């Protein structure tokens, strides 16, 4: 029947996608067979041939773009709107050009893949590859000891250094790897099983897309992998005539980092690509920018980067300019401790009452059931409660009571909450104070509204209606109410975060305290995330709870999330072993399709159905028994846990049984390499947090395959199916035998929250007793449905948080676009014209509404430096749009005249500098001022003289626009940070925080834009040169690099998340290697015949 349905409707989507790719694979293999007869020079020559074919395909559209740019440059400065229209056409043509590139690459793809495969074959079968030396070969030979020049020939050895160790190339692409490469080239995600050679797969689309000359970015999760892969695969690309570099090898903002981006293929970590984007949008000259176009990115472990770390903001920060009031956490801490103690006593009493009444048969939701529900809603993590809920039928009674109080939109819920001090919703990770709780933490004699947020709209409305108050008094009272609201909102927010810290976050599970600071433990890997902090004051709350120093806050200067950074690329693709479970999210956010690539060798690992126990105690006992059995038959065992605490508990249980084992968790990261090396030996027992499931390569020891391979024991189902699949993937690599088994109890967090009600009911009906176990596919499917619920819930949370970030992203794109116009100068004239227009509109509309003609006249003088000809009668009665246009024209004419005056004054001064100080001066620093502010403007001496002073005016516009945008953007980011925190209490007024955030953010951005326009126009219209007495202040200037010494990137916390991958390799001490040492007077290795100091060593 299944075969008939498959025949009728087709197979799975991934299988259909693979079927479409197979003809390309066949063509590639056909070319591969024919290329065996080519000489090395002919094979290498294919790169130049492909590049020429791409160039020929793009000739027509490149000519169109060049012609449009030439037309725009030929227009006069007054025709800015025509120039802008042409630039928009150029933007459209550039997008069409990208599509043309994809067309020609699709034609070349089979041949290009065959070239890479044949190159890999030749390196794997020959110790040396000899070909005619190219200039690139000669350059490489100076830096790399495995490349040498002999006369007119280059010699590439097939052994070279990668990640500090020698590697000998021994890989040739299988058909499944050609399929994976095709998936990546199409801009999709290739899901490939562990051990299927994802690193080798990446060479195919990397070479193909590098031929277009637009740059290929290969993104890894840590710098070790970036450096290793660039060195490992780089020789293949270099032999084929491409440049390869790794940004993580070079300092930020350096010429070497810039050159790394100019390479055909650039490796790097996700965070460094993002930080470079932010830094590029903080520099003051185009020469300081390191990145070029975001064209094609290939992301390794794409699910980790684009799902797990998608919300992680990359932040460049600096000193904060206001007090963040960390002391409030310590001030309120005693009140919260008192509150939590009172809640513990109350919930224990409710639990005792529930046990008594339910034992008497009274489980009425209004009586015995209510007491149980209150105990659960008050402290769901109470161990006594968890134990009681594991008894037969009790969880069903709790569910019955919960359903009663959730009915009719929680109409009866206030009755359940009235005896609690606060209530906890574990599923949404939230804690809320009740009236009883507010009364408890409000001190005697203190304002009863001390922790109550006032209805600000009613208070402000009452002041407006008050007739006995003067306007000034009303304003003062409104300010007092707004200030009081702000203080209370901040206080309530602090209380909520402290409550979360005490009730939802446990030491040694969610975080650890080391070296006097709170460090987060990664829930998926068990690693300590150095540098990472919880947001919205939660981290400060935990620091107060643990009595450690509360770290001072910093101010954001620039920020972007990884999600929004990678969405900028023309084409994005990725590789991972586990993406299918997140396919919906990857498509929804990134429009990335997931294709499951078949394995080269069929997997024979046996995945058993889950074993479900009632209690954790029974579960852990069964795990220990199974470990003993597996050791007796000589199989290595990898035990996966979800927390440091469980790892240490199992370690203690194994020590009691005198079973030798290794424990690998966040506290023992230093021993990781040694532990993982031993994990595949016969009878070895390794307990590891889920970090073992990410990029860890466990190699089987002698006799292990015959015994049945590596055994995986999972001690708990993770809330993400992907993490469980990663753990399972450690066994059965490349056709090895192996098995996996998950042990689950009804007391596990996932089961408590989502999956255990029906299973508990089933176990009760079937009469299961303590120690009995359930194992059935139906149960395993039920658990997976629970995981799916959590994944959907987490996706919802991520999407909501990303909606906040999308607001920020739109604003950032608008600001950075305007900033780039100023940086490059091409489209700045239109932006300045727009600033004059916006300022004219603002003055006319505001003063017309106020009927304040004198204020209008004064504002025109202050903003535009002109005495307007608009009369009072015209301001009040004439058509508004015509008035705006008239004032705008007056301002533009006045500014043009002002510029001419400045240029006339500048020319004699610049001529004098040329005359007195000679022609060797390139740039001059000119200190402009408007009487209040001053900016130093760097102007090119020759250009200024050749253009009659126009260059100086343009340099002034560029410098002022950049400075004003940077000042206002920094303040705006601080306001947005404050806004995001303050709106979180909006739900207390029955309002959606996101809606409030969007409305307020829009208004803040409008205000920022108005400030930018006003400040730019104001300075430009009043800017003056130094007087004759001050001319001595003019001096030779050199372009200074942007000072980033006081800025800090949150690099540590971002990097830590990716350190799990290939961790066992990273921890091995790498041998110290050095490049070939060449004396300055030795012959240059490039074969030119010159001395090194006169050839490739002249710049050293």
Can you describe this structure?
This protein has 1100 residues and is of the alpha/beta class. It is 55% helix and 12% strand. Helix 2 crosses helix 4. Strand 27 (923-929) and strand 28 (934-940) form a beta hairpin.
Question: What descriptors fit this protein?
Answer:
1100 residues, alpha/beta, 7-stranded parallel sheet, 39 helices, 55% helix, 12% strand, disordered N terminus
- Give the overall shape, derived from the CA principal axes: flat
Count of DSSP E strands?
30
Radius of gyration: 34 Å
Overall helicity: 40-55%
Short note summarizing the structure:
Helix content is 55%, strand content 12%.
SSE topology sketch:
Blueprint: H1 2-9, H2 13-35, H3 40-74, H4 80-125, E1 128-132, H5 135-143, E2 147-150, E3 153-157, E4 159-162, E5 165-168, H6 175-185, E6 189-191, H7 198-201, H8 203-210, E7 216-220, H9 223-239, E8 244-246, H10 255-262, E9 265-269, H11 270-280, E10 296-300, H12 302-308, E11 313-318, H13 327-359, H14 368-378, H15 383-389, H16 394-410, H17 413-417, E12 422-425, E13 430-433, H18 435-441, H19 456-465, H20 471-503, E14 511-514, E15 517-521, E16 528-529, H21 538-545, E17 555-561, H22 562-566, E18 571-576, H23 583-590, E19 594-596, E20 606-607, E21 611-613, H24 616-632, E22 637-641, H25 644-656, E23 662-664, H26 672-678, E24 685-689, H27 704-707, E25 710-714, H28 721-728, E26 738-745, H29 749-765, H30 777-824, H31 828-850, H32 853-864, H33 872-877, H34 880-917, E27 923-929, E28 934-940, H35 941-946, H36 950-982, H37 993-1022, E29 1035-1036, E30 1048-1049, H38 1051-1056, H39 1063-1066
Parallel strand pairs: 6-18, 6-19, 7-9, 7-10, 8-9, 10-18, 20-26, 21-26, 22-24, 22-25, 23-24, 25-26
Antiparallel strand pairs: 1-3, 2-3, 4-5, 11-17, 11-30, 12-13, 14-15, 15-16, 27-28, 27-29
């Amino acid at each position: 029947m299944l075969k008939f349905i498959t025949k009728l409707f087709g197979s799975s989507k991934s299988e259909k996608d693979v079927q479409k790719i197979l003809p390309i694979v066949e063509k590639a293999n056909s070319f591969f067979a024919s290329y065996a007869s080519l000489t090395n020079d002919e094979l290498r020559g294919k790169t130049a041939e492909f590049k020429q074919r791409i160039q020929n395909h793009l000739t027509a559209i490149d000519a169109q773009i060049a012609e449009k740019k030439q037309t725009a440059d030929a227009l006069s400065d007054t025709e800015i709107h025509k120039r802008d229209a042409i630039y928009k056409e150029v933007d459209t043509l550039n997008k069409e050009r990208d599509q043309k590139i994809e067309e020609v690459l699709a034609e070349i793809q089979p041949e290009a893949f065959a070239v890479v495969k044949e190159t890999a074959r030749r390196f794997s079968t020959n110790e040396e590859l000899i070909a005619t030396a190219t200039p690139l070969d000669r350059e490489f030979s100076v830096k790399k000891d495995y490349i040498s020049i002999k006369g007119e020939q280059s010699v590439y050895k097939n052994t070279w250094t990668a990640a500090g160790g020698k590697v000998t190339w021994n890989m040739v692409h299988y058909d499944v790897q050609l399929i994976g490469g095709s998936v990546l080239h199409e801009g999709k995600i290739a899901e490939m099983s562990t051990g299927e050679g994802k690193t080798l797969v990446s060479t195919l689309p990397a070479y193909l897309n590098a031929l277009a000359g637009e740059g290929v970015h290969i993104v890894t999760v840590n710098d070790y992998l970036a450096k290793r892969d660039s060195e490992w695969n780089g020789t293949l690309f270099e032999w084929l005539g491409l440049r390869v570099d790794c940004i993580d090898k070079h300092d930020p903002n350096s010429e070497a980092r810039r050159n790394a981006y100019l390479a055909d293929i650039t490796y790097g970590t996700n965070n460094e690509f993002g930080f470079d984007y932010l830094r590029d949008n903080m520099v003051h000259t185009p020469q300081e920018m390191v990145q070029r176009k975001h064209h094609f990115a290939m992301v390794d472990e794409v699910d980790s980067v684009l799902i797990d770390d998608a919300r992680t903001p990359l932040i460049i920060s600096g000193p904060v300019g206001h007090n963040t009031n960390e002391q409030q956490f310590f001030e309120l801490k005693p009140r919260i401790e008192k509150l939590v103690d009172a809640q513990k006593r109350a919930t224990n009493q409710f639990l005792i009452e529930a046990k008594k009444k339910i034992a008497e048969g009274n489980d009425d939701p209004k009586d015995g059931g209510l007491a149980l529900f209150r105990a659960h809603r008050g402290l769901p993590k109470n161990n006594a409660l968890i134990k009681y809920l594991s008894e037969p039928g009790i969880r069903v009674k709790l569910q019955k009571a919960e359903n009663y109080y959730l009915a009719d939109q929680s109409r009866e819920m206030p009755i359940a909450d009235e005896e609690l001090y606060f209530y906890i919703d574990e599923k949404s990770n939230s804690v809320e104070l009740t009236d009883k709780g507010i009364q408890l933490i409000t001190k005697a004699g203190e304002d009863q509204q001390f922790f109550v947020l006032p209805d600000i709209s009613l208070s402000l409305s009452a002041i407006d209606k008050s007739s006995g108050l003067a306007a000034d008094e009303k304003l003062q009272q409104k300010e007092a109410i707004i200030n009081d609201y702000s203080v209370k909102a901040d206080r309530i927010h602090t209380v909520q975060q402290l409550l979360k810290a005490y009730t939802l976050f446990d030491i040694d599970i969610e975080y650890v305290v080391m070296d006097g600071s709170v460090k987060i433990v990664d829930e998926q890997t068990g690693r300590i995330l150095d540098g990472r902090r919880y947001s919205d004051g939660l981290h400060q709350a935990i620091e107060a709870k643990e009595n450690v120093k509360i770290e001072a806050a910093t101010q954001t200067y620039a920020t972007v999330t990884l999600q929004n950074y990678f969405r900028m690329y023309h084409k994005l693709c990725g590789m991972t072993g586990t993406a299918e479970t997140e396919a919906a999210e990857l498509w929804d956010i990134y429009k990335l399709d997931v294709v499951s690539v078949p394995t080269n060798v069929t997997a024979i690992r046996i995945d058993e159905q889950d074993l479900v126990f009632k209690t954790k105690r029974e579960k852990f006992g069964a795990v220990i028994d199974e470990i003993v059995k597996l050791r007796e038959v000589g199989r290595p065992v990898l035990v996966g846990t979800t927390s440091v605490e469980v790892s240490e508990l199992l370690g203690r249980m194994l020590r009691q049984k005198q079973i030798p084992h290794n424990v690998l968790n966040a506290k023992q990261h230093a021993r990781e390499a040694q532990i993982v090396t031993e994990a595949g030996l016969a009878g070895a027992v390794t307990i590891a947090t889920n970090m073992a499931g990410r990029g860890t390569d466990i190699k089987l020891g002698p006799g292990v395959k015959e015994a049945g391979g590596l055994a995986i024991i999972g001690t708990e189902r993770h809330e993400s199916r992907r993490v469980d699949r990663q753990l399972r993937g450690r066994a059965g690599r490349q056709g090895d035998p192996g098995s996996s088994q998950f042990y689950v109890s009804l007391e596990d967090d996932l089961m408590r929250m989502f999956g255990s009600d029906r299973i508990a009911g089933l176990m009760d009906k079937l009469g299961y007793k303590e120690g009995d176990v359930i194992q059935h596919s139906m149960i395993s499917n039920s658990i997976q449905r629970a995981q799916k619920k959590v994944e959907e819930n987490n996706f919802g949370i991520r999407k909501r948080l990303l909606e906040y970030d999308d607001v920020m992203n739109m604003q950032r794109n608008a600001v950075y676009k305007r900033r780039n116009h100023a940086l490059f100068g091409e489209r700045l004239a239109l932006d300045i014209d727009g600033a004059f227009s916006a300022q004219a509109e603002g003055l006319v509309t505001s003063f017309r509404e106020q009927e304040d003609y004198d204020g209008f006249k004064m504002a025109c003088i202050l903003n535009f430096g002109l005495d307007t000809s608009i009369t009072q009668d015209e301001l009040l009665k004439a058509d508004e749009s015509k008035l705006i246009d008239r004032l705008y024209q007056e301002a533009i004419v006045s500014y043009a005249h002002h510029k001419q005056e400045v240029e006339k004054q500048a020319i004699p001064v610049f001529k004098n500098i040329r005359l007195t100080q000679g022609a060797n001066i390139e740039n001059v620093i000119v200190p402009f001022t408007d009487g209040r502010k001053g900016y130093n403007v760097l102007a090119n001496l020759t250009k200024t003289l050749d253009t009659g002073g126009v260059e100086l005016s343009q340099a002034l516009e560029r410098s002022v626009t950049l400075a004003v945008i940077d000042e206002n953007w920094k303040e705006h980011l601080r306001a947005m940070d404050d806004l995001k925190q303050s709106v979180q209490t909006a739900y207390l007024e029955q309002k959606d925080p996101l809606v409030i955030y969007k409305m307020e953010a829009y208004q803040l951005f409008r205000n920022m834009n108005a400030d930018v326009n006003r400040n730019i126009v104001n300075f430009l219209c009043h800017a003056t040169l130094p007087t004759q007495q001050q001319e001595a202040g003019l001096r030779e200037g050199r372009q200074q690099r942007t000072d980033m010494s006081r800025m800090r990137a949150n690099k540590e916390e971002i990097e830590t998340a990716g350190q799990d991958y290939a961790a066992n390799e990273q921890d091995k001490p790498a041998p110290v290697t050095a490049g070939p040492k060449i004396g300055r007077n030795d012959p240059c290795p490039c074969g030119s015949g010159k001395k090194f100091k006169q050839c490739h060593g002249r710049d050293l």
